[in-house]
Design brief:
Mean pLDDT of chain B: 91
Mean pLDDT of chain A: 90
Helix content of chain A: over 70%
Shape of chain B: globular
Largest sheet of chain B: 2 strands, antiparallel
Number of domains of chain A: 1
Shape of chain A: globular
Oligomer: heterodimer
Number of helices of chain A: 14
CATH superfamily of chain A: MetI-like
Strand content of chain A: under 5%
Structural class of chain A: mainly alpha
CATH superfamily of the largest domain in chain B: MetI-like
CATH topology of chain A: MetI-like fold
Number of helices of chain B: 12
Distance between the termini of chain B: 42 Å
Strand order of the largest sheet of chain B: 1-2
CATH class of the largest domain in chain B: Mainly Alpha
Distance between the termini of chain A: 43 Å
Order of helices and strands of chain B: HEEHHHHHHHHHHH
CATH topology of the largest domain in chain B: MetI-like fold
Largest interface: A-B, 96 and 92 residues
Strand content of chain B: under 5%
CATH class of chain A: Mainly Alpha
Number of domains of chain B: 2
Chain lengths: 279, 307
């Protein structure tokens, strides 16, 4: 019995070491990025592998704000991600409430229309959307970054699914008390839906922050670059200056990774709940 | 409700019903307008566009099925990107699923430091793929990158030239995509594993089943609905590979890492062939739809919903 137990412990130790090695592989690219960003530009062409920079320099971080308006990129990313997230939370929770809790003619057909578009890859709609924004003269504007993403069918679906699971009792009580539909939405449904709303917040905000193809298409000028497209611009101009590219990457990742490590649980449950479509 | 005041009740309800309908449309309108303009109608506009030729300057021209025919008869690059994407999907989807399952099974053993490991594996999921593509481009650098440096140290005399080699560039992208994709599937599997009742394992242990047998007879069947979900999601996302190809290789060398979505992007926004790009986008949609449909049809053969 004792022997078996120690064998089991040995197994667990091996498993632990294996998973530790795998986790190291997952983390090494991040460490390498961080390490390179603190190296002297010529140090990266040495033949000796150097994980800890020698000497440690911060010049890359100073230079990057000189070669490109990185502060502006931050602002553009923050502004678009925040606007899209807030607009989606409002419009999707409105529509989700109507689909989940109200009866009106055409409800099921409309909802089916929403569902059907969930299957369609984004590449199908970007071409017509680009043409539309071009006709409106909105290329290279914040509207172009924000508006097409502000009314997500997915967000509506996610919240509708969650709202449908809420018990009707509270709603009925509120109705008897003479509460309006908006009152029920505001004071009954929303407070009960914090998990779903925070899922959608994480999912949308992250999706926008990291979004690449859409800003790449609708943004031309450097000042309107979001962080992702800004990194692409940086790459276009300094494609062999690894220390500069890595400091840019660190800057782009830092806010997300800090938030992620701080609110790890919220992020993971938000991403998976959304990834699974609220199931 | 008694019969006597039934009629009255119905009348009163129809007034509240009307209010409910008005409220519903009020709640729906903001989203519906945006949904129609930016999602629903564009799908059909794209379909119409796919039967035309248009460079945004000259008048639009109806060309019937010419764009769809051209893909397969007069665009060798399209055949190449199709092949690349299919190979990419065929390798990365199973790898992302199997490796994620292995990690999830390990983390489900309640090891020391589970939270740390979960965070480590999930970090690539929340990271911008542009930023991680940049560091991987540097890692794969044939002369000064750390990967080949390690390979030299290990005695590999002539390591692959990775991103500049037509043979190794696509595998390099696959490695990054797998690294990026494990975390998401892992947490979904972890949730699935935690949903399997512990009594099943206890009963099996009493019957003398080995852990290996438990895995095949309990874990895998009980997990199959989760696996199905992961399979569908991973397949769809894998077909849409774009960011890595743009940043790491720009589709090169010699189209070795060019993908369907990159081909759509180039045709639409660099060559301004709106009609042709829309046709490829619709083709991609049809392929993804057909595969998803097949997966749903096929699930009865291996997915267990009533265990």
């Amino acid at each position: 019995m004792k022997k078996r137990l120690s064998l089991e412990n040995l197994g667990r130790a091996v498993l632990f070491l294996a998973i530790l090695a795998a986790a190291a592989v997952m983390l090494l690219p991040f460490l390498w990025m961080l390490s390179t960003s603190f190296k002297e530009p010529k140090a990266v062409f040495g033949l000796q592998l150097q994980l800890i920079p020698n000497p440690i320099v911060t010049d890359n971080y100073k230079r990057i704000f000189e070669v490109l308006p990185f502060g502006r990129f931050y602002w553009n990313s923050i502004l678009t991600s925040a606007s899209v997230t807030i607009l989606q939370l409002v419009t999707c929770s409105f529509a989700g409430y109507a689909f989940a809790r109200l009866r009106f003619p055409g409800r099921d057909a409309l909802f089916l229309g929403y569902l059907a578009t969930l299957m369609i890859p984004g590449q199908v709609t970007i071409i017509p959307n680009f043409i539309l924004l071009r006709m409106l003269g909105w290329i290279d504007t914040y509207q172009a970054l924000v508006l097409p993403n502000a009314f997500s069918a997915f967000g509506t679906f996610l919240l509708r699914q969650f709202f449908s699971t809420l018990p009707a009792d509270l709603e009925d009580a509120a109705k008897i008390d003479g509460c309006s539909h908006f009152g029920i939405y505001r004071h009954v449904i929303l407070p009960l839906s914090k998990p779903a709303l925070s899922s959608l917040t994480v999912f949308t905000w992250l999706g926008q922050w990291n979004s690449f193809i859409w800003p790449l298409i609708v943004i031309n000028s450097v000042e309107m670059n979001t962080l992702t497209v800004g990194l692409r611009t940086l790459q276009g101009q300094y494609n062999t200056q690894w220390t500069l590219l890595m400091s840019g990457s660190v800057l782009a990742l830092l806010p997300v990774l800090i938030l992620f490590v701080m609110a790890q649980r919220t992020f993971i449950s938000g991403m998976t709940l959304s990834g699974m479509g609220g199931r | 409700m008694s019969l006597v005041n039934g009629k009255q009740a119905r009348k009163r309800r129809s007034a509240t019903e009307r209010r409910e309908i008005m409220a519903a449309y009020g709640f729906l309108t903001p989203n519906l307008i945006g949904f129609l303009i930016f999602t629903f109608l564009p799908v059909f506009v794209a379909l119409l566009l796919s039967f035309t030729e248009w460079d945004l300057l000259r008048p639009i021209q109806w060309v019937g099925l010419a764009n769809y025919i051209r893909m397969f008869t007069n665009d060798p690059t399209f055949i190449k990107v199709l092949k690349n994407t299919v190979i990419f999907v065929a390798v990365t989807v199973p790898a992302r699923i199997v490796l994620a399952l292995v990690v999830a099974l390990a983390l489900n053993q309640k090891l020391f430091g589970t939270t740390f490991f979960r965070t480590a594996f999930f970090m690539p999921v929340v990271s911008s793929s542009v930023a991680v593509a940049l560091v991987w481009q540097w890692i794969f650098h044939a002369d000064f990158g750390p990967l080949n440096n390690i390979l030299w140290t290990l005695g590999v005399g002539n390591p692959p030239r990775w991103l500049t080699s037509t043979q190794w560039a696509l595998p390099a992208l696959m490695i990054v995509s797998i690294w990026q994709g494990i975390g998401m599937n892992m947490v979904i599997f972890l949730a699935g594993l935690q949903g399997i009742p512990a009594q099943l394992y206890e009963a099996a242990r009493i019957d003398g089943a080995t852990p290996w047998k438990c895995f095949w007879k309990i874990t895998l069947p009980m997990l199959s609905p989760t696996t199905f979900l992961v399979l569908v999601m991973t397949t769809i996302s894998s077909f849409q590979i774009f960011d890595l190809a743009v940043i790491m290789t720009e589709g090169g060398p010699a189209n070795a890492t060019n993908t369907i979505v990159y081909h759509i992007y180039r045709n639409a926004f660099q060559f301004f062939r709106m009609g042709y790009a829309a046709a490829i986008a619709w083709f991609l949609f049809i392929v993804i739809f057909a595969i998803t449909l097949f997966q749903f049809r096929n699930q009865k053969n291996w997915v267990n919903y009533d265990l």
